[in-house]
Amino acid sequence: MLVAYLVETRHAGDADLQLSDLETFYRNAKIRFDESEDFANTARDYVVKLQGGDEEVLKLWRQFVDVSLKHCEDVYEKLNVGLKREHVRGESSYNDDLPVIVQELREKGLLTEDDGAQVVFLDEFRTQEDKPMGVIVQKKDGGFIYTTTDIGAVRYRHRELKLDRVIYVVDARQSQHFAQMFTICRKAGFAPEAMKLEHVGFGVMMGDDGKPFKTRSGGTVKLIELLNEAEERAYALVSEKNPDLSDAQKREIANAVGIGAVKYADLSKNRMSDYIFNWDTMLAFEGNTAPYLQYAYTRVQSVFRKAEDYDANARIVITEPAEKQLAAALAQFEDTLNSVVEGCYPHYLSLYLYQIATLFSRFYEACPILKSEGEVRASRLQLAALTAKTLRTGLDLLGIKVLESM
To answer: Any idea where the DALR anticodon binding domain is (predicted)?
Structure first.
């Protein structure tokens, strides 16, 4: 569809302008697809050519790929994510495999021709009429659908990458698609039982009105624009709280706090639940938020800036209830991480870090650190050091920066 519209707009002389905004380009292409049967047929022909490796069509398609990847790289940089182009293996990488996959499915007796299309019927999934549900892997026009590409990806990840666990982080509403695709891969031998295939679904981010988060005009919110706004809001807060800081210092803190707040607001919720997006809540320096945890870390660091000496090998001696509670919680870090990895629920880690920050605050108030003496002082400094290490490591695992001071 996009290639067909690119060819059409090139004739009109405005393709470059529209390619500068892929969202608008896609929307206009979709309108043409829905309104014109001739255009829709042309678009379908281009899909078949693209999957067949037609050089001219591939050349046009790469324009979209380049623009899309450049945008993604800008977002990755803003998020401090280390993904590069060499880490990307797009759908087109599997195009040569798709006919082979269909042939292998046929040889294994899994394919049925239905109205000209190649279909895998699965007894594990039933229609309302209690008949096996069919999954199309090749359309009657010869084109392949994204299910076929996903099957190709699983096949590649098993045969070439030798993976033992593959995690798909995709909207929960795609659960049936993945369940069916995984089943086909198992039946075809593309994924042995020892290879874990997991769909990690997630809910929807809602606005204050309880509806899916949109712009005021009803459009889709771009992530890069959301992140930029987060930084600007954080900059305003930092400027208000610390007007004497240099602009460079304010920007550094605003970047860590703003981007961290957006990440944490999402990761701190049960991924299967919908949640309300609210700027005031996520940027608050109180409660279960990134700014609160970042501030808690700087509070611990301030202790060591004031301490003249610190014995990193000191023995921890527990004498007070607040010490016992903090030490017991710190000892649970590894178990918490194991739970996160096992179920792919990052909010377990968020809740744990919030608990650590809260317990440290109680410990800090109840148990003087720098004013104590001897082994008590050394022990409490050791607890503070372990707290800082746990907060720093945990936030880093969530992709959130820490600061030495705020």
So the answer is: 293-406
Burial degree of 120 (CB within 10 A; 0-12, 13-18, 19+):
buried
CA torsion through residues 356, 360, 363, 367, sign: positive
The pLDDT of residue 358 is above 90: yes
The two three-digit tokens of residue 204, written as one number:
């929807």
Q: Which has the closest alpha carbon to 81: 398, 346, 403, 399?
A: 399
What's 304's domain CATH number? 1.10.730.10
Which amino acid appears at position 387 of this protein? T
pLDDT (mean) for 48-69: 84
In angstroms, rounded to a whole number, what is the distance separating the alpha carbons of residues 369 and 303? 8
CA dihedral sign, ordered 236, 240, 241, 245:
positive
User: What type of residue is 215?
Assistant: T
pLDDT of residue 217: 63
Separation in Å, CA 388 to CA 304, 312, 352, 404: 10, 13, 14, 10
3-state secondary structure of 344: coil
Q: How far apart are CA 269 and CA 180, in angstroms?
A: 28
- Supply the range of the domain harboring residue 61: 1-88
Place of tokens 């049960």: 270
Distance between CA atoms of residues 241 and 402, nearest Å:
18
pLDDT at 215: 66
Choose one of 36, 68, 88: the last residue of a domain. 88
Looking at residues 245-271, what average pLDDT do you find?
96
